[in-house]
Amino acid sequence: MKLKRFLLRYYPPGILLEYEQGNELHTKAVDLLTLTPDTDVEVLVNTIVRHEPLISEQRKPQVRKLVYKLIEKLESNEAQNFYLFKILRAHILPLTNCAFNKSGDRFITGSYDRTCKVWNTMTGEEMLTLEGHKNVVYAIAFNNPFGDKIVTGSFDKTAKLWNAETGELLHTLRGHATEIVCLSFDPHGAIVATGSMDSTAKLWDVERGVELCTLIGHTAEIVSLNFNTEGDRCLTGSFDHTTKIWDVPTGRCLHTLSGHRGEISSTQFDFSGELCITGSIDRTCKVWNTMTGQCVNTLRGHNDEILDVAFSCTGARLVTASADGTARVYNTMTGACQAILIGHEGEISKVAFNPQGTKIITASSDRTCRIWDAQSGDCLQVLEGHTDEIFSAAFNYEGDTIITGSKDNTCRIWKC
Amino acid sequence: MGLLTLLRALKQNDQEYRVLMLGLDNSGKTTALKQLAGEDVAHITPTQGFNIKSVQTEGFKLNVWDIGGQKSIRPYWKNYYDATDGLIYMIDSADRNRAEETAEELAILLDEEKLDGVTVLLFANKQDLITAMPPEELMSALKLTSQRGRKIIMQPCSAKTGDGLQEGLKQLLDVINAAKASGK
C-alpha cells in the first residue's frame, strides 16, 4: 500500500487518502468529525499519524497544514449577514423544491407548472428549462458531488433523468402507480431511489434507466427517502407510522422502525450511517440505531406536529421543525435539548444546518426564513421579502449562499 | 400549509373527500373558501397558484383545492383532476359580459375524461349584487347539454356574505355520499 496524495473534505471535516494497492487506486477517509477551532492541532496530528499506517512520520508537516486549512474552513463566514442578491420570477405557479449542485454555481427549482429550471447562481440567469412532465414536478435532485445529472419526480407518476449541462432527457423512469414525492441519487451517482404515494419505493439504474428493484413493505404513502453516506442503505419514511431501512444491493428490508404514533414526516441518516432520525406528526422525533433497529431516544417538547428534521453535517447535533412555530436543537448523543428557536409566527416546514454546522435556517408559512446560531439558539437574521409561504430553503456547500422557494412563484438568492 | 400538508391533502380517508374549486378569475373562489373556513375575507388578492383548506361538514372533511382562474393558469387546472370527488364551479352571476367565457370553460371541464361522472356544484355567486342574474337565467346562459350519469347542482350564493355556501356544500356532500354508497 502506497500513499499517492491527500485530498481535503471540508464538510464534515476529513482528510481523504488516495493510495495504491496492487496497481489499483483506492480512497480512504480519516474523519475528523469532532474538529473545532479550539482543537489542539499538535495532539490531533500525532494521533492521526499514530493510527494511520499509510501516513509516515515525515508527512506530519503536510498533515498539520491540512488540519489548519480545515479549521479555517469551519470559521469562514461566521459573522456575516445574508443580503437579498436576486429575485427570480422563476415560475408561473408555486415552487415545490430547490437544490444546489455541490460547487453551488448551479441550482434547480421544481414547480407546479410542470417544469424544472436550472439557474446560474452568480448571475441569476435561467440556464435550462426541463420540460416533459405532465404534472407537478415535486421532488428534484442533482447527482452530487458530480452535478452532471438531474433527476425530477412528478405527480405524473414518472421520474426523469436529465443531462444537467444540455437539458437532454436521458431516461423516463416508469413503474410507480401514483405520485412520486421523494427521491435521491445514491452518493456514487449510479442509482436513483424514488418514493411514491403508492406505498413503494423503487431503485433505478441511472446509466440504463431501468428498474433494479421495488422496495415493498410499507402500507401507506412514502414521503421521505435518503441514502446513507456509503450508499449501501436506504431509509424510507411512511404515513404508515414506520420507517424502514433497506439493503440497497439486494432490496431487502433490514429493519422496520416502529414506535411512532403518527405519520412520519421526515427522515435522515447521520454522516456515519450508524444512527438515523425520524420526525413524526405525533410531535416527537426518534433517534434509532441503524444496526439493531432499536430506538435509542425519543425527543419530546414540541406542542404540534414535527414537519422536518435534520442532522448537522457531522451528526453531533440535530434539529426538529414543527407546526408549533418553533425549532429545537438537540445533542444527538445525550438527547438533551440545547436550544429552542423561537420567533416565527407560523409553522416551520423546512429546516437545515449550514455545512459548517454553525447556523440553522428555518422556512416558515409566515413568509420569512430565519437564520439561527446553532450553538446559542439566537436568531441572527430574518430573511424577509417573500409574499407567500416558503416551501423550501437550502444552503450551498460553502455556506455563503441560500436559495428560498416560495408559494409566491419566486425564488430568491441570498448571499453573504 | 407547507409541502407535507399538500401530500396529506392528496391522501384519501373514508371520511375525507377531495373537492376541486374552479371558475374564471374574480368569480369569488378564494373568498368562498375563506368564508367556509371561517377566515377574514376583507383582503383577498388574485390567486397566483392555489389554496387548500379543509372544511368540516356533517362529520366529513372536505379538502377543497381552490385553483387560480386567470387565463394563463387555466391550462394547469388539469394537474388537479385526479381522484376528485366533487367539482365546484364558481360563477360571477353579475358579470354578464363573461357569461359566454364561463360557459365555454365549464363545457371543457364537463367533457374532461378524468372528471367523468364527478358531481358538479355550480355556485351562482354574487347574488348580493342587484345586477346578478337569477339562477334560472344563468342556467340557460350556460347552455348545459344533457349530462349522462352526472348530477349538476345549482346553488345561488354570496361568497361575500356567506349566504348559500353551506347549503351548496351540503347538497354536494349528499350526492357524493349517495354515489359512494351505491358503489360508483
Care to describe what's here?
The complex is a heterodimer of chains A (about 425) and B (about 180). Chain A has about 425 residues and is mostly beta strands. Chain A has a domain at about 1-75. Helices cover about 5% and strands about 50% of the residues of chain A. Chain A has 2 helices and 35 strands. In chain A, helix 1 crosses helix 2. Chain B has a single domain (about 20-180), classed as Rossmann fold (3-Layer(aba) Sandwich), CATH 3.40.50. Chain B contains 5 helices and 6 strands, in the order αβαβββαβαβα. At the A-B interface, loops of A face helix 1 of B.
Reported for the largest beta sheet of chain B, the result is: 6 strands, mixed
Give the CA-based shape of chain A: globular
Q: What is the succession of H and E elements of chain B?
A: HEHEEEHEHEH
Structural category of chain B:
alpha/beta
- The third-level CATH topology of chain B is Rossmann fold
How far the N terminus sits from the C terminus of chain A, by CA atoms, comes to 44 Å
- Count all strands of chain B and give the number: 6
**CATH architecture grouping of chain B:** 3-Layer(aba) Sandwich
